[in-house]
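#onboarding

Welcome to the new folks! Below is a worked example of what a typical request in this channel looks like: someone posts a single protein sequence, and someone else replies with the predicted structure as tokens. Don't worry about understanding the tokens yet, we'll cover that in week two.

Example request:
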Amino acid sequence: MGGTEPCEELPWDSAFFGVSIARARTSHLDESSCKVMLEWCGSRRIDCLYFLCPVDDGATQRLLTDHAFQSVGVKVTLSRSVGSDSGRVSGQFRPATSDDIPRLRAIATVSHRDTRFYADGHFDPARCDELYATWIEKSVHGYATYVIVADRDGAAVGYITLHLDTDDAAAAAAGTARIGLFGVDERWRGQGIGRDLLRHAVQMLQEEGVENASVVTPGGNTVALTLYTSAGFRRTDVSVWYHRWFSDGRR
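Example response:
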């Protein structure tokens, strides 16, 4: 692992969940580097360590399993060229405002339960709900470059957040953007709102001069994977999330 520390502490995650959380800086291990990593966690009294491993690295996965790491989900990264046709869009879409936050929080609370935090089993499910509610609220307040909502009768019924690679518009024009959170109110699903919201977002990025867009979604979310694939996104990476608990995170 060279001269850098094997892991980094995550202050925001730690404060939010009330336990000490860190993330490994490497994605590959051997016996020696695994020992160094675990000793680092022990010396800093880390409660939970995140590790992201390539899906095809069987040796590292076996080491993780041997050392009590728990597989908590598959991370799929997809991307597409923004310049290609995204399809016809129908419906009303607009930038989110602070007035939308209560509805967006309500949607986010129940829209991301296929993620690794719920699968872990140590995190309080109510805190996991609040994680995504907080995430969308922070996105509206500037964490995301854009938050676009699907509007039906004056109310937000879905959202998508977009992050440009840089705040400098000229540099962003030659770079990429990524999709952050994407959700549709349960009562409005099955009506093509997610499809049109995604198409609208891609067209908006095209107008911004962005060349490529990427998105990350859980491997078990077949609905999202089908939607992204139908919208021209193609898989570029598949990795597996592991969590290692050194103490009970339910406190």
